[in-house]
TrEMBL record, chain A:
Lineage: Bacteria, Bacillati, Actinomycetota, Actinomycetes, Pseudonocardiales
Annotated source species: Actinomycetospora cinnamomea
Domain of life: Bacteria
Keywords: ATP-binding, Carbohydrate metabolism, Glycogen biosynthesis, Glycogen metabolism, Kinase, Nucleotide-binding, Transferase
One of the Pfam families matching this protein, by short name: Mak_N_cap
Catalytic class of the enzyme: transferase
Subunit record text: Monomer.
Protein name according to UniProt: Maltokinase
Residue ranges occupied by any Maltokinase N-terminal cap domain in the UniProt entry: 24-117
Catalysed transformations (reactions): D-maltose + ATP = alpha-maltose 1-phosphate + ADP + H(+)
UniProtKB/TrEMBL annotation, chain B:
UniProt keywords, alphabetically: Calcium, Isomerase, Metal-binding
Protein's UniProt name: maltose alpha-D-glucosyltransferase
Residue ranges constituting the Glycosyl hydrolase family 13 catalytic domain according to the UniProt record: 70-472
Protein family: Belongs to the glycosyl hydrolase 13 family. TreS subfamily.
Organism from which the protein derives: Actinomycetospora cinnamomea
GO MF, any single term: maltose alpha-D-glucosyltransferase activity
GO biological process annotation, one example: carbohydrate metabolic process
Length: 488, 611
């Protein structure tokens, strides 16, 4: 269909704006435009949030964007917009302007990204504290939340897949850009963890929930946005780990446990934090045993992923049999327990605050369908993901250097490996301290999950960041030879 | 009990009138004589016996604005060639201290003492250690300091005395006499076993048996420092009168040493007891009523959440000590830089409670003691040892005995960063003598003497500290090729405006131009880069004038970018404070700054049209 035509005969409420949106979308960080051709755009949901006669007009919309990919196929993805409209908005909103459209009262309205407007973020917050309903949107405050926080909010810069506004360093409202039917696991798990009184996540304060027209008629529930406490003065674990590695690599003659920037204390605390989250999730949402059939299903799923990687990457194809043998560890390990887990854990999903560590973003691996993301899984998957993340942190800088150098420096490689081993080990120690069981006591299972993740990373990096593919490839080799694993 | 106590023993008797050094000596002689004959009451001099120093105008919050400078009389300047620094020598150097810009000198104890604990073992509260001079010298020193607008505070040890103090000698000799109940005596050594032993290196018990009296006496510190019995009202009176003696002479306040331990109670660890706070409130009232503008500074090496108790009731703005040292901050600064992470500092500041409106923290990088590691966890202590005390001789008790410059490998960038933190974090900064020129230490000297070597004034004999025969020096001057007096001295650094000394002087001056550094609120900005510590100090003056200072510190040795959320000051302009260069105005986006390794910025933030 032509890019600007409404999906049915009726007038598209954003009809005037289609051209402007098509020009605006690729410039948004949350919009995955890279290497893709937009084929069309239509509005699938639209409602007015502001009261009649209020300025600016605030609108919520869900748009469906169709892409033509390189192979000639097509796909449609749905995104949420929060729009402000006013005949002449304040000058400092200029950077957020999307376009103009005819106004219902004659003249033109300027339409802009609503989250940039402090008046709009203040309205959203007020509606949440009032537990208001506006059309299909339900604004919900968590019970017993503290004294209301007041707006206006400020947009947070530099985010990737979602858009957030911060209210006076006290609360953060996250608008999920990708519109997906069903309860967003981020909201679901934060609710559960709040009931547990978790200190390991930023407390949930409220949410905006809405409806999404189903693909085949009817409507389904959808999570629009989530309001939580803001972790002021925090920094993410990835940048802190890189700081530590940088310190180490600048001291070629000192070992990982000798340099001032040692990270092991933090890795230990992260281990404790992750274990506590697992315990809280298990307590809130239950566990169940994974029988032999279930374990085989997990293995088959891993093998599928392996075959996809083998088809694309020669280095994986060559070692397919050895890899499959290690993945078999999932069924060899005997009965285990599964529960709700984080699902997409890495150092960047952990925030260091002045009082400790917080785990954030419980959405799960974004590329997976919702049903897969909410399926109970082994906590070992999260543990393995963290171990992989320490590897990434250790070798990230070397990978950057190697792209311009001919030969990797074996001395620096050894130091990086020491850093990884030391921090992986400290993480497991911390995890064991809280969980009561050490993940290294089940080496075959842990190794299978870690290798599964590494294989996935090899595929991902080959496609997206070829300069980094050496990191998971090196880990893959190591996991296959069994040298230098975290268990010792 | 002790009928004799209130009758004359505590009320100071007037023994002489003229304020001369000879009188001190004469009195000493008299006392020795009376000792031999077993007099019960000790006659003590009165402030009225001496000339009084000129006083400075009463300024209620001077201690909040002041830059303090800890100076050891013994180590600063020797006027009489006996190898010991003395009060007259110190007086001669006041012009230098005024030039540097310090507002208040803190003198560790200069009282008569057998010097078994660096003078913290006081033998006579109303007499100056003979090597340092006389009470008259002290009055002259205060007078000259005040003439330059410099205030002076000194240590006062209230918890205990030397075992050579007359009170103790009388107490052990005559249990029924006027001093029989001045100390804490017991027939056995089992009571208060919950109280920890502080000097674990040398003491095995808080009780020591005295064969003269046939009883055990209580001591929280060394066994030659018996604890005074503050349950005896006469002791409280005697202590307050000792304070009055120096306050009358013109001193501006006291650092109260070892203050948490004044009382003992069953079933407690004998620290921070309510009775101790009651006594401090009483002392504060004396100061407020009789000596307005003078201050009390608590030395309580405890967690900030416990130390705030020593400021007293926040409802009335604080009614105990005006100031207290913030002990845990200092090791955290060292950790943060070694770890290249702001969090060790952020953590401790987040744990630091609000303090009453009239209270102020005292903060420091180094002092005459070891770098104390009592207020860190075991892990952190191991880490600090590994990083900063690579030689076992660098350790003392549970701390590190080193000066600032050697601790930082004499790295000018780090020295500047540390000092910038000291001068901009919340609290009044306390500098340690010699650190302004980057003096070194001598770890081969015993105990903590390694950081108490003579001040290095010139490249001449004895570093210009003394003209005595070098062999007569109380402690040797530093002579190594890096920190020795020929390389590091005031004279050479005075002549070069690029020197550390001139840099320190400039920074002190900048700090004084902006009341926000001294009086402002503290708000950490966070920011995307964990190696960068950024904060805003904000102060609104009485006339409504606003002073806003932004400090950005790179804890890493590598250059770093940082994006700061300064939206609250949108359209305002940050002007760098050392050079006055205006930076680009603050816009809608996070404010991007790049810092060199261990670099820092101080900005004033103001509306665009100002300046």
């Amino acid at each position: 269909m032509p890019p600007t035509s409404p999906h049915d005969g009726s007038a598209d409420p954003l009809g005037d704006l289609h051209d402007a949106l098509l020009a605006w979308l690729p410039g948004q960080r949350w919009f995955p435009a890279k290497g893709r051709q937009i084929a069309g755009l239509r509005t699938v949901g639209h409602s007015v949030v502001s009261a009649p006669g209020d300025t600016p007009t605030v609108e919520h919309a869900v748009i469906a964007v169709s892409f033509t990919d390189a192979a000639g196929g097509s796909a449609e993805e749905r995104y949420q917009l929060l729009l402000g409209a006013q005949s002449s908005p304040p000058g400092d909103l200029e950077h957020a302007v999307i376009g103009r459209r005819r106004s219902s009262h004659g003249g033109d309205d300027v339409v802009y990204d609503g989250l940039a407007d402090g008046r709009i973020s203040r309205l959203l917050l007020a509606l949440i504290t009032e537990n208001a309903t506006r059309g299909p949107l339900r604004f919900v405050a968590e019970p017993d939340t503290e004294a209301p926080i007041v707006g206006p909010g400020r947009p947070l810069f530099g985010e990737q897949s979602n858009s957030s506004v911060i209210y006076g360093e006290r609360a953060i409202l996250k608008l999920f850009r990708r519109a997906t039917a069903g309860l967003n696991p981020d909201l679901e798990l934060h609710r559960a963890l709040r009931r547990e009184g978790s200190d390991e996540v930023a407390p949930l304060l409220g949410a905006i929930e809405g409806e999404l027209p189903g693909e085949s008629g009817g409507v389904e529930a959808m999570t629009v946005a989530m309001l939580q406490g803001f972790a002021a003065n925090s920094a993410d674990g990835w940048s802190m780990a890189l700081t530590s590695v940088r310190d180490l690599l600048a001291e070629a003659d000192l070992r990982a446990d000798e340099v001032g920037g040692d990270f092991a204390g933090e890795a230990h605390r992260i281990g404790k934090t992750v274990a506590a989250v697992h315990q809280e999730l298990a307590h809130a949402l239950g566990t169940r045993p994974l029988d032999a059939v279930g374990a085989r299903a997990v293995e088959e799923w891993m093998l599928e992923r392996l075959d996809r990687a083998a088809a694309a990457v020669e280095g994986v194809a060559e070692q397919r049999e050895e890899i499959a043998a290690v993945l078999h560890g999932v069924t060899e390990a005997g009965p285990s327990t599964v529960q709700r887990i984080h699902g997409d854990l890495h150092l960047g999903q952990e925030l260091r605050t002045p009082t400790g560590w917080l785990v954030i973003d419980f959405e799960g691996e974004p590329s997976k369908p919702l049903a897969d993301r909410v399926r109970p899984d082994s906590p070992m998957r999260d543990v393995a993901a963290m171990l992989r993340s320490f590897d990434y942190a250790a070798f990230h800088q070397l990978a950057e250097w190697e792209q311009s150098a001919d030969e990797p420096d074996p001395q620096l490689e050894r130091r990086a490996q020491e850093w990884a081993d030391r921090n992986r080990s400290a993480f497991c120690d911390g995890y064991a301290e809280v969980a009561g069981t050490d993940p290294r006591e089940n080496p075959e299972l842990l190794r299978a999950y870690e290798l599964d993740k590494a294989v996935y990373e090899v595929l991902y990096e080959t496609r997206n960041r070829p300069g980094w593919v050496s990191i998971p490839l090196r880990s893959m080799r190591r996991l296959l030879t069994g040298v230098g694993r975290a268990e010792r | 009990m002790n009928e004799g106590v209130s009758a004359g023993a505590v009320t100071p008797a007037h023994v002489s009138t003229a304020a001369t050094g000879e009188n001190d000596v004469a009195r000493d002689h008299v006392r020795d004589h009376t000792d031999d004959h077993g007099a019960h009451a000790v006659e003590e001099p009165s402030a009225a016996d001496f000339r009084h120093a000129r006083t400075l105008p009463v300024e209620q919050d001077w201690y909040k604005r002041a830059v303090f400078y800890e100076v050891l009389v013994r180590a600063f300047a020797d006027s009489n060639r006996d190898g010991f620094g003395d009060l007259r020598g110190l007086t001669d150097k006041l012009d230098y201290l005024a030039w540097l810009g310090v507002d208040c000198l803190w003198l560790p104890p200069f009282y008569d003492s057998p010097l078994r604990d660096g003078g913290y073992d006081i033998r006579d509260y109303r007499k100056v250690l003979p090597e340092f001079g006389t009470v008259a010298d002290f009055v002259e020193f205060i007078d000259q300091a005040h003439a330059r607008g410099i205030r002076v505070i000194t240590d006062l040890v209230m918890n205990h005395t030397s075992d050579q103090h007359h009170w103790f000698q009388e107490s052990r000799r005559d249990p029924e006499g006027p001093y029989g109940d001045f100390y804490v005596w017991s027939d056995d050594d089992t009571r208060w076993s919950e109280a920890r032993i502080i000097f674990v290196d040398t003491e095995s018990s808080n009780w020591t048996y005295d064969s003269v009296r046939g009883q055990f006496y209580w001591h929280r510190f060394f066994s030659h420092q018996p604890d005074l019995n503050f349950d005896n009202p006469a002791v409280c009176e005697a202590m307050i009168d000792a304070l009055r003696f120096w306050l009358d002479l013109g001193i501006d306040g006291f650092r109260l040493d070892a203050v948490p331990y004044l009382y003992e109670r069953d079933g407690t660890n004998g620290e921070n007891l309510p009775e101790t706070h009651q006594f401090l409130k009483r002392v504060r009232k004396v100061v407020d009523d009789e000596y307005p503008g003078r201050v009390l500074l608590a030395e309580a090496n405890q967690w900030p959440s416990d130390v705030v108790e020593y400021f007293g009731d926040p409802e009335v703005g604080g009614d105990e000590c005006h100031m207290a040292f913030h002990f845990p901050l200092m090791p955290r600064i060292f950790m943060a830089v070694r770890r290249e992470s702001r969090f060790p500092i952020s953590e401790i500041l987040a744990q630091t409670p609000e303090i009453p409106s009239n209270a102020q923290w005292g903060i420091f990088l180094r002092n005459h003691d070891e770098l104390t590691l009592e207020m860190v966890t075991d892990d952190e202590r191991d880490y600090m040892y590994a990083e900063y005390a690579k030689d076992p001789r660098m350790k003392a008790n549970i701390g590190i005995r080193r000066r600032l410059a050697p601790l930082l490998d004499n790295d000018r960038n780090q020295l500047e960063l540390f000092t910038a933190l000291l001068l901009s974090l919340p609290g009044s900064p306390v500098l340690y003598y010699g650190d302004e020129i980057g003096m070194g230490d001598n770890i081969w000297l015993g105990d903590r003497d390694g950081v108490r070597s003579p001040m290095q004034w010139t490249p001449d004999r004895n570093a210009g500290f003394s003209t005595c025969d070098p062999g007569r020096l109380n402690l040797p001057v530093i002579m190594d090729p890096v920190y020795g007096y020929q390389a590091v001295n005031v004279e050479a650094q005075s002549n070069s405006t690029a020197s550390l000394l001139h840099w320190n002087r400039r920074m002190i001056d900048i700090r004084k131009q902006h009341p926000a550094f001294a009086l402002g609120t503290f708000h950490e900005l966070g920011g995307s880069n964990p190696s960068v510590l950024a904060y805003v100090r904000e102060h609104t003056g009485e006339e409504g004038t606003q002073d806003i200072v932004l400090c950005v510190n790179n804890m890493s040795r590598f250059p770093q970018p940082v994006e700061l959320d300064l939206i609250a000051w949108k359209d305002w302009v940050p002007t760098e404070l050392t050079g006055g260069v205006p930076f680009p105005p603050i816009g809608e986006l996070p404010y991007l700054l790049t810092l060199p390794g261990h670099g820092f910025y101080w900005f004033s933030i103001h509306p665009a049209e100002e300046r």
